[in-house]
């Protein structure tokens, strides 16, 4: 590419042969993306973003190794602050915030592309690592896959992982979904290899999913398992012994109340789900309104964008900031609801009716859930732990999923409701009741069908 195409190429943060982004210079990336947008050079914009992805992936992977070793995940810190600073600089350079607009599935402006990468990297404090806990002296009685909550880490699963080993004699595999696309794919591959290495054909599998993030990882695993499994992996319906849903999943709910998914435009279908979210997930915003038909779409989207920005996106970014940064770091003071990052998220979610579609972490939410949950065998034991006061994954949505399972699958989910426990903290708030139900449920699990077939 001739250097004259970009006036500041002499001050570039990379050379064209290596295409390496300098994480110390976020302003240089913003300047070049802005120039590429003005000139309409999509190929150059893609090259910049591809180079950024390579740097981020290297940082996330190294941080995962550090997390596995019990060390501070410093390798990703420079990329995290780079993305935060790049968003802030983009807001300064483009006060209209147009650069953060999502346009349509798979198409967004350059600022939105930076924001997507920031959000996708904040879902796992264990990054893309996968940990296996084996029994040192006992023959394992089973294999459990623990899929962690959003922003979670191996530390969050320590007590329950110990329980699976010490009480039930299970080999434990743990991971928290990394939403960065190529890294998530590698993470899923690593999990499937670990299942094979630890004798899933004989032991079978129990899945223990925490919150929607954990359930989303399980959905991604099932998709790969059923469409492109590694050689030697048994069919899922022959080895899945049961599923535990810990504060999840609420994504079946809208199908029952709105009639979706149905044959509607993508935008109209999305609005059905946003309306449902407005009424049932945001009751304070909805006030006393009980009908989704009386509320203007644009008003709903505005309130929804504010809610999702503050309760989901900013909370996720702040969680990662608290993991990576010292308390005195200036970036922590730049993540409030009036910050540049908040403004960017609000525009990205609210404009052009993005709402609940093409999300960096959850994809298309309800429609994607329905497309992937079909891979889970219908008739397996299921138990769900949830709370009446959970504001992250509300009880009524979880109960709608149980209703859906009964009506659509023809399979019941054993429901265990707690009145006052926190999100994914039922085993902490009411340990006696939680473990009594869990232990009794595990004791009734059938042996792995694959093992029985092999023995026969």
Describe this structure as you would to a colleague:
This protein is α/β, with parallel strands linked by helices. The protein folds into two domains: 3-120 and 298-366, no CATH class; 145-249 and 378-455, Alpha/Beta hydrolase fold, catalytic domain (Rossmann fold), CATH 3.40.50. 51% of the residues lie in helices and 10% in strands. It has helices at 26-39, 42-68, 77-93, 110-120, 158-166, 181-197, 200-203, 211-227, 236-239, 253-258, 266-280, 283-286, 297-324, 340-350, 366-373, 395-409, 426-429, 431-443, 449-455, and strands spanning 102-104, 107-108, 130-133, 142-148, 170-176, 205-210, 240-246, 382-387, 414-418. A seven-stranded mixed β-sheet has the order 3-5-4-6-7-8-9, sandwiched between helices. Strand 1 (102-104) and strand 2 form a beta hairpin. Helix 13 (297-324) packs across helix 14. It is globular, with a radius of gyration of 23 Å. It starts with 25 loop residues before the first helix and ends with a helix. Residues 1-17, 285-290 and 452-456 have low confidence and may be disordered.
């Amino acid at each position: 590419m001739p250097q004259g195409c970009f006036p500041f190429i002499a001050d570039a943060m990379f050379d064209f042969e290596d295409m390496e982004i300098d994480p110390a210079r976020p302003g240089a990336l913003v300047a070049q993306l802005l120039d590429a947008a003005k000139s309409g050079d999509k190929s150059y914009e893609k090259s910049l973003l591809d180079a950024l992805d390579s740097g981020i992936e290297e940082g996330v992977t190294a941080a995962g190794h550090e997390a596995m070793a019990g060390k501070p995940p410093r390798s990703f810190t420079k990329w995290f602050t780079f993305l935060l600073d790049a968003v802030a600089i983009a807001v300064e350079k483009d006060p209209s915030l147009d650069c953060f607009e999502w346009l349509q599935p798979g198409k967004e402006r350059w600022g939105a592309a930076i924001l997507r990468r920031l959000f996708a990297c904040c879902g796992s404090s264990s990054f893309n690592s996968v940990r296996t806990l084996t029994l040192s002296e006992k023959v394992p009685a089973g294999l459990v896959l623990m899929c962690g909550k959003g922003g979670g880490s191996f530390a969050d699963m320590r007590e329950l992982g110990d329980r699976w080993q010490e009480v039930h004699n299970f080999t434990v595999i743990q991971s928290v979904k990394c939403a960065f696309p190529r890294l998530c794919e590698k993470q899923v591959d690593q999990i499937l290899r670990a299942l094979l290495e630890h004798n899933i054909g004989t032991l079978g599998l129990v899945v223990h999913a925490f919150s929607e993030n954990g359930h989303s990882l399980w959905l991604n695993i099932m998709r790969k398992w059923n469409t492109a499994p590694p050689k030697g992996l048994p069919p899922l319906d022959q080895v899945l012994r049961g599923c535990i849903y810990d504060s999840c999943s609420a994504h079946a709910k809208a199908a029952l109340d709105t009639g979706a998914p149905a044959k509607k435009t993508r935008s109209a279908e999305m609005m059905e789900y946003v309306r449902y979210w407005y009424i049932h997930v945001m009751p304070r915003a909805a006030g006393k309104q009980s009908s989704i038909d009386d509320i203007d779409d644009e008003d709903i989207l505005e309130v929804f964008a504010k809610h999702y920005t503050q309760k989901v996106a900013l909370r996720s970014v702040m969680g990662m900031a608290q993991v990576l940064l010292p308390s005195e770091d200036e970036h922590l003071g730049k993540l409030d609801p009036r910050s540049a990052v908040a403004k960017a998220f609000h525009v990205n979610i609210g404009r052009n009716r993005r709402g609940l579609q093409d999300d960096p972490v959850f994809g298309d939410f309800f429609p994607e859930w329905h497309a992937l949950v079909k891979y889970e065998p219908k008739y397996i034991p299921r138990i769900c732990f949830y709370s009446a006061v959970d504001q992250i994954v509300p009880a009524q949505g979880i109960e709608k999923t149980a209703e859906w399972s009964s009506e659509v699958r023809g399979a019941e989910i054993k429901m265990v409701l707690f009145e006052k426990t926190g999100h994914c903290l039922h085993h902490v708030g009411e340990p006696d009741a939680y473990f009594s139900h869990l232990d009794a449920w595990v004791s009734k699990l059938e042996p792995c069908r694959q093992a029985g077939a092999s023995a026969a």
